[in-house]
Records
---
Amino acid sequence: MNPENLLFAKTHEWVHVEDSDGAKIATVGLSAFAIEALTDLVFVDLPEVGRAVTAGEPLGEIESVKAVSDLYSPVSGEVIEANTPLADDLEKLSEDVYGAGWLVKIKIGDEAGLADLMDYATYQKQCEEEA
Amino acid sequence: MRNTQSTQLLFELSSPGRRAARLPACDVPERPVEELLPAELLADQPPPLPELSEPDVVRHYTNLSTMNMSVDTNFYPLGSCTMKYNPKRNERIAAMAGLADLHPYQPEESLQGMLQLLFELQEMLVEISGLDVVSLQPAAGAQGELAALMMAAAYYRQRGEQRTKVLTPDSSHGTNPASAAMAGFDAVTVNSNGNGCVDMDDLRSKLDEQTAVFMITNPSTLGLFDQQVAEIASVVHGAGGLIYLDGANMNAILGITRPGDFGADMMHFNPHKTFSGPHGGGGPGAGPIAVRQQLAAYLPSPIVVQDGDTYRLDDDRPLSIGRVRSFFGNVGVLVRAYIYIRTHGPDGLRRVSENAVLNANYLLARVKHFLPIPHGDRCMHEFVASAAQLKTDRGVTAMDIGKRLLDFGYHTPTVYFPLTVAEAIMIEPTETESKETLDAFAETLLRVVDESPQLLHEAPHTTTISRPDEVQAARKPVLTWVAE
């Protein structure tokens, strides 16, 4: 996916929303900026399918040689798929950030959180300020 | 030049039939082991123990021991850890038979000296903390945090209040939110403001009637004294919450200010940092906790009390959260803390902190010209530099600098902590270092930041092992050695 077409959370998750059978499905990953800042990844803990998640609340954990960080859910809804093979193949996260490196798919329940997400240009600006 | 000392394992050094000891002939009748034990309990073959001569064994361990860096061999500016020199007097006194050869099952009347020492240590920590009652039992700072949060939970239960949240600043030690989760609370992060102190608006927005405790490290992990602390305490107390002070950085404020005076209700001490107990090796540690009177009933049991001329362990404390450690805690470390405090006295402890702060500020003033200090020109006992610009300009990271310092005989400062500073290098010289040591370190650091990136990426060049594969070690750790 082209990052310029994605939405981004303040906490560095990317979101791709598409319609499927009348429901809105969000594919969620972690931005290239965040993955580079974390450096070498050693562990990822993803939520189980079926778990209800809330925008802004922890969704899972990611651990690098530097630190353990929470992953935050950018939207509210229900986890319908988790990219569990990633755990054994963490290189994918950095090699194909906006494709094979996706983390979870969430069926959006409440669209309230969507309005807080940023477009690519705004997110880039945030990253420049943080760097 | 790389040090080529052997890092072979004893198993790899083994040679069949080699022995370090010759045992005398057996003078009792020998019986085959099959006659003594049932067949199903016997191994198929003897265990493959390494076979070595005495010099093999002595060289192996002596060589390993010389690979250690310690505060006895090198300057050790490991921020947040307060690697102060441990006076040898502590060791000599702690090893005296009257202290070292006691057994906790001895009758109390034969332990009066030790109980008096522990009682007096409790009293001294009360005075240093500005709080009311102390338990010496927790075996580490993090266990002190956990015990105190369990006490907070018990305190609110007793009052019939349902409080589920513990707030921690984003610069806190990772143990703070971990202790909160272990004690059954939800850990909620409070952001820092631009000065690295607590963002009061963010604190106010997250503080509510669900908040049990706000945990603060003051001075903070950025080496800054948060001057809003009295206001923070008043806001948190106003919402019915408690203030927990992470005492990791007490080395900056001994005899100058007291947590109880700036609003803390509970705190732990790290005797291995502040009071010169030995570090490392996984312990034994100690993490005494001090609390206000309203929380005293919940302290871990037992605590040492004085009845006239005698001392005893008081276990009759029905609201206590119970024991958090066997016997009285790790007494050996507490003895060293006691000796350190008694050796310095109140004025000496104050000078310890003054010199710790002076040394850190001197080093900051020398370093800031070539490594930016994002949070200003003054610090308490430690400061955090950033290699972010160096990384952007030349690809050199905090880790590269840390690794290269090993080649010059310096222990690496703390890197990548706190998480709020990019490419953080956290430097804490402690009070025991001379101006000459600080100057030499600053000059080395200046030299290192100018070296070629390639040289730095491959550092250290002089140690037996250069850079272990940390990624594979974390992803696929090999925890047992198996003969091939």
Note: Chain A has three helices and nine strands.
---
Amino acid sequence: MLNKQIKNRLGFLLLLPLFILLSGCEFKDIDKDVFVAMIAIDQSDEADKPYKITLKLYEPSSSFKDAPQPTYSYLTQAGETLSEAIRLMEAYSDKELQFGHTKLIVIGEDLVQADKSKEILDFLLRRPDIQMIAWIAVGRPSAEKIIKMVPQGETSAYPELFNYFDHTGTESQYIVTTYLFNFRRDMKAWGIDPVLPIIRINEKDSHFEIDKSLIVRDSMEPHEFDPLNTSLYTMLTKGTDRADLAINEDDEYFIARIDRLKTKHSVTIKGGNKIELDIKIKLYGYISESKKNLDSKDLPFYNKLLKAESEEKFTKFFTDMKELGFDPLGFGLDYRSRTLHNRRMSKEEWEEAYRNAKINLSVTPQLKSTGSIQ
Amino acid sequence: MFSLEAVKWINDQFKQTNELTEKTLEYEQKYMQLFYLKPLIDREMLQNSVIKPFFEMASENQFKLYLHALPQFQEATTKEQVMREIMNGSVVAVIQNEWYLLDFKLSTNDKVNNTSVETTIHGSQLALSDNLATNINVIRSYYHQPSLCVEYVVKGEVNQHKVAIIYDKEKVKNGVLDTIRERLQNVDKQVVSSTTQLNNFLNNKRLSLFPQMIMTERPDRIVYNIAGGKVILVVDGNPQAVATPAVFFDYMSTMEDNYHTLIISIFLKFLRYAGLMISILLPGLYVGVTSFSPEVFRTELALTIAGSRVGVPFSSFIEVLFMLFFMELLLEASIRLPKAISATATTVGGLILGTAVTEASLASNIMVIIVSAVAISTFVIPVNEMAFSIRVVRLLFIFVTTIFGLAGLTLGLYVLIMYLVNLDSFGEPYLQLYTSPKNRSKWERKT
């Protein structure tokens, strides 16, 4: 009994110094950290230092009521690698750079066009304090310019740019939101291609414009979506639950406001490396704008118009994608998930089959009202 | 069996004090000797029920029968018992070597108090009194069952306090009762003066943090606990009773939970457990999050905290300890102070110190908010004993978080839960949801 007690005490004494050595993270007070709001990665002009990194840093303030104007500081450095540039920047700052609050990573368009996204991704993923739920976007003309712009009316501590992506502020069908983890997953897997939003600044430098997007694939030239295609993409991927579709046919012109969308897509495998793409879309909504008087009795007719118009638009989108070889919705992934690995086409065969696939697209329109009280 | 020698022995025992009164009454061939301690007995009662009849009765035999019939009458067996009863306020009447013990104790402390520790809005506002007999009267008059048992044990070698063990024979777990009896036997203390002292004497542990008996002053809670198969211990001269075996969740419930409608009591319970979590974890969380992993915060909050810490000369854990220390001082001071001053003390301490500390930037604004939130949420814990334990646990968590960060806090919480799981209160696991009354099978109950 006594022996056991002594043993316990000895064990505890032995463990105690080990515990002290265990301290995992280091103790650092929060006021000795500086938080990075955004990272911009651009191509630099120097040949031996291809990457230019700009960091947007928050300036802490005890009361945001006293300081309504946002204050940021910036650090810029070019380096041979991203880590090198960041290491140099750490020497420029008096406080520890904290990437834990980095919500947005902007990559300069040049870098994306130069097919460097994979290398950048590698760095972003390996650094533990960069959150995988950060958004990733493409900056036009350069990422640095995007993050250095502070639009009018921005409140401190929460850059306006975040509101575009976090679905708590604006909810637009033209804004694609891509998370870092998603970007990485789509980039690595074959059968689906990531789409990145393009952030531009308007001519007067007063606000951002985010209505285009870029579909990227490793070792392929990125393809840019115009606003229409961007909105079709967000509708198809359920990136939005509200959208407008303009119908202009047979001297009828009205806007269908879609407030609920259902899309289903899958690959049907027909023997001999032949596939068909099935896409079923249901659009629920009402008419929000029209140049003529509309009658509720004619809703079936308007539905028909909506069906014809949207089918045409969606089919064109898919045909374009097919011909270019991009796969934004992940038909390839769908195919891979439903075939056994030994009976599966190779990547090259699949790409060939995808290019020649037949598209079966059907839209079920569900316009519920003409939007006016009669 | 009681001879003159016994009378002499008793006289010897009380030789030190001059308070033992010996009275000899003699009238018409009736002869009686009375012994009592004057300050302890009700003189009027003695006069009316013994002395007056003595002179009125015709014969000694009739008077003896009369004494037997008195409700205060008690059989005398040994001379030690007689001596003890004299000290408890009995009168000894000796007639022809026959001894009559009559309980004429004068109690000045038999008024029931108002509830002061466990105050409620609904339900009775009266608590127990300082008098054991009154307390048992209160309990019995709220619990009408013939199976209610009261056992008395005298504890405290010097002050010889009466301890009552109260339970419902039908409902109590025999194992628990035996353990309590056995441990009470082993209590070897000079002075036992409070019920809550028994908590330390009976749990067989030198260091214990969590109480294993629940202190209460409310008769409704006592009755509720007896009905739930618990054992109640009451010490004479104490307005509090303890109920045991107690589980952790007993400490988180008030009697009012039973008086409110279901949804309201669920809401109140939720508040209470939230308060418990806040008071345990919040200071540790502050240290862990600000100093180890600020990415857990929302960005705005991280920046506000970073901003409000500008100019604070201490590390976050010193800051927390510093403020908590003053809060604990304040709590302790307001208990000890007379009621009239304690309100001033809390104002000076809470309001003035709080603002002054932030203005002198000895602590950040957020810290003051956290400390006040912690203080308030500690008060939400309904049973005082648990609130004290939680205050200590909180400090341990700050310590662990300062060294190991948030991972340490999480592991610390696990360790706390493991410790609680390991604890038992008189054989009942501490973390079980309720104590089961008596392990009887169903068919047994039917027959």
Note: Chain B has three domains: 1-103, 110-246, 259-429.
---
Amino acid sequence: MTVHASYRLALVGNPNCGKSALFNALTGGRQKVGNYPGVTVERRVGRLHTQGGSAIDLIDLPGSYSLSPRSPDEEVTQKVVLGQFEGELAPDAIICVVDATNLAFHLPLVLELKRLERPMLLALNMMDLAERDGIVVDVERLSAELGMPVVPTVAVRRAGTRSLVETLTSGVDELRARADEAAAVSAELPRDARALRREARRIARAAVLSEGVEHRVTRLLDTVFLHRIAGPLILLGLLFVMFQAVFSWAEVPMNWIDAGMVSLQHFGSSGISNPQLRSLVVDGIIAGVGSVVIFLPQILILFAFILLLEASGYMARAAFLMDRLMASVGLNGRAFIPLLSSFACAIPGIMAARTIDNPRDRLTTILVAPLMTCSARLPVYTLIIAAFIPNRPVLGAFGLQGVVMFALYLFGIVSALAIAAVLKRTLMRGASQPLLMELPKYQMPILRDLALGLWERARIFLRRAGGIILISMVVLWALSSFPPPPPGATEPAIYYSAAAWVGQGLQKIFAPIGFNWEISIALIPGLAAREVAVAALGTVYALSGTDDAVTSSLVETLRHAWTLPTALSFLAWYVFAPQCLSTLAITRRETNSWRWPVFMFFYLATMAYIAAGLTYWIARAVAG
Amino acid sequence: MDAIVTIRDLGRLRPGDSGRIAGLAAIALPPEQEQRLLRMGFAEDARIEVRHEGPVGRDPIAVKVDGIIIALRRRDAEAILVEVDPPR
């Protein structure tokens, strides 16, 4: 066997073939996630070692139904496989992953890939499900028909992955030789989509010895989840439980983090003698970063729900149920998935809009995605709700705080739909894209994959806390500490600082909608990342209060410093809040022009101002 | 032997109806859309079975084709002609 330093292998397959689960099983935590240059398609690479000692770099390509791309995702797959992607070497061999329970549907892509005459290997995945359904596949026959090695795998249990690795070890060279043998056959492969399907069906019929019975669980669950009355009720109930969970389950770990931060502050206060340095560490860094990190439990719970809905196969059902509603605003059910992901973060949401191939539908979805309440807005909502909304029971089972939170989410959703409808009738006029969407079979989510996904989110969030948020906090601290107060000053130090000048200047714009200068200044770093507004308030109030106020919690402070109308106005502002810089940057990248991010910024800023103003004036009139 | 063959478009079928795809109505079907339907398995001779309907206006529908389930709107399903199985 020739010893190569490293092989580059690409995993290719239809969406829902279990490809990513296989990738996770093969590479475990040793994967790097990045982006392909110039496009925002995720690039996942993982390294594994064979028994022979050679290293394999495994690339997980985006799921693709065929090599004629219909979306940016599929285009990346096509170009990388063909070796036409700039800056990306052609893979030494292709591992094509298919779902053993749906061979006829998955084989056309295999035949298309085979036509490329590259070294290739088939991973016959989901063998456990095939066995359970009584499906028997003649692996030898399939291998003979396709002219390539076939390895049965069960990604969920890591079964077959060892033998997959061994087949890889036995040499890409051997695969190359096989590819040459097969070249004669592949030249005769049909090019036309219809003929390709016919050939796929013929091979599937030849190789599948027993068709088995259909996946019974999926059929059963669908009669419930897609039921005309029960279906929508279950969806609504699921969303409600999700938001209640975010609010109540997170409480305990959040209290731990809070307690940890307070003791850190005590430790810092007593341990650092230089007053300037002590102020920077205690008031700037610990108070600022701490007030963001505390929301990690809520964000993880929200992501856990979304990952669970995706992995179980339910997400596509939700899109099915929502299609008619989306159609009424000129979009299709597919737009529901990016919008639901936007509840976690607008960035993956906007990226998920890539599955919509009609450019006008896609742009509309991107433009309204920031209206879905992202997890970064949660800290702001949570803080204000905790400070101003009493947690008394409503309708017996639910807390008023949870209900207000739900109402804020609902307000975001309704606004998103209304604006989408307006956009589709004005700027984005045109026929909408037909819905054509696979409803994958239900699957038990794999705990390991879920944990990997959550770990990735936590890392991204904490990196933000350590990066952009930390920097904003230090800058804000400097602005609020300098110039120092004159001797004999009567007010807290911050009243004499640069921050106060900026805040008071901005307040001229925001006073009509009830914002004080502390809020006005918090809005600026809030542009960098929304949750920073909370940290900024923490910094501003910690500095503007007396020594006691530094250690007392922000909730207490706000309760005394703000009126109810101001608090409600601030909430309304944040429903529309001109998005964080990262959202604008991703919109720029996804739309390939500055026009749309600029448009997005101004339309949202205008809406935020009007909504906050109306809320403030109405609340004042009502509260007297 | 019963030689009568009923051809209907998929857009009119109800859950429980099944049959074989007789063809795609080439008229009024943009080539782009034809390719989309083909790659999701809506090709001649494929067995289909209507499974579910959406909650509002019985739209969209979920159709089993080539072993997988695809959701599409009734309007778009009109282009797919089905040789309907006789009722059992």
Note: The longest strand of chain B covers residues 47-56.
---
Amino acid sequence: MPNSTSAALAAHALRLAYRQSVVLDAVSVTIPAHQVTAIIGPNGCGKSTLLAGLARLHAPEQGQIILNGRAIQRLVPRELARQLALLPQHVLAPDGLSVADLVRFGRHPHTGLLRQWSPEDQAAVTDALHTAGLADLAERPLTTLSGGQRQRAWIAMALAQSTPLLLLDEPTAALDLGHQIEVFELIRTLTRAGKTVVMVVHDLVSACRYADHMIALRAGSVIATGAPRAIITPALIRQLYDVQCTLLHDPTDGTPIIVGAQRAL
Amino acid sequence: MALERPQSIKPSSQLTLLCAVLLLLSVAASIGLGAGAVGPLEAWSALGGGGDAQARLVVLTLRLPRTLIAVLVGLALAGGGAMLQAAARNPLAEPGLLGVSAGSATAVVIAIALGLGHLHIIVAIGGALLGCALVLGAARLSGRGDDPVRLVLAGAALASILAASSATILLFDQRTADEVRFWTIGGIAGRSLAQVMPALPAVGLGLIGAAVVARPLAALALGEQVARGLGQHPQLIRASVVGCVALLVGAATAMAGPVGFVGLVVPLAARWLAGPDIRRALPVALALGPSFVLLADTLARLVASPAETPLGVVTALIGAPVLVLVVRRQRLPSL
């Protein structure tokens, strides 16, 4: 069930802190609708914190996040959960949970004591399973799936939320190349169907290949935003990772490829 | 195809049948068996108004109230255990092991020593609430609230301190000691229905609360962040669970004293039969809890007959080996 409503998300002068230490300061970003946005940067630069902030898991010290023209702090949790689905980096499921069980949880924001399970909910679950290519595995326990399948099952849960926005924290962490591509291609399919995806990605090459838009963070500040081909330069990579490199371009699609990387002295 | 099921959170019909048969058998045993000379057939005819006067007296004033109390205690402890385990994501989070029952019992002992015995049920619920808060707070302070064994250790320490405090009070206060001697090890012998009436609304309220909070609690099994992403309030869910558990365990303790291991064994069996989702495990635990307590209480009358073995001793004899097995194997369904 593709949702084509415009769902641009924007952060204004955001400051996020854990206790005393400020992780992000004066961060302003906009998330273009119906595109894949990748948040990149070195370890500890605040990528996951920014994603958590955008999903309101982390309350800002300053600034605000605007969704459909409204500050997300003003939305009740259930309303936000119908607009925005989040998949954290570390997820765990109880033993014995089946794929369909997990995906049904995605309907939580749409059901309740007074609003019981409906054909619409069932349709959303079936759709999510199909989109994620898991229809045949619906009754399988999660623990029996491969890493890529399991990750797709979690994404299917987020899909069943039927939100225009999807926030994914390192959706391909700990997956091998084949499973990474499986997940990234699913993400591409989703934006083609009208979703807006924001993801934290460690692997710069994959980020370049699969993202339409990039937000580069370093030490809690945004140092570049834009299309990968426009912003990824040897200078930016040096600035982000203290690495010297040469950039080539993939002859098939022009995606930047990093070669000859070594520590900048 | 299985996907066509509405939400597949209803237990299967075989499981329902199994629970029903078990409950019927255990009620029959509880009414029919006992230390007295009244046999099963005589007891059942006495229930219908037949039999001699002595049989009617035994059945109507001793065994029937006992059966009803066992059912209530079973419901309360099994429900409280299942909820606490789901909220703490810890298969060992048992009200008895965590010191919740001990908190409740100590509060009652203090109240009786102070001459406030008539506040029994309220004090018991308050004590259970305090016990819950103390042990969850202690586990959280240590920063390892996710470690199942650590939480149980914190609970065991708390339970020992509380039991020692109760024992000390009883040592110095003969009147209180006489009043609660049997009660402090857990037992439901010699209770009248009038004594348990105050616990009835607490159990009812706790069960209604459990039914309401089961759905959001199920989402919490996916982790705090995912639950919040689904629009739930983890803090609110945990607070509601603590409230329900305090009502249920407090009421059970007021009726029967601190009876351990029911909240461990029964939810464990329920998860094994119905899977980890609390929406499925809770009804099964509630169906099995009364049977377990009824059978344990029937055993309590028979093992050392005509003397009465405390119910808490019987449940511990059954439950402690299960606990050891669970800890040793660690292949219990994790939460």
Note: The radius of gyration of chain A is 19 Å.
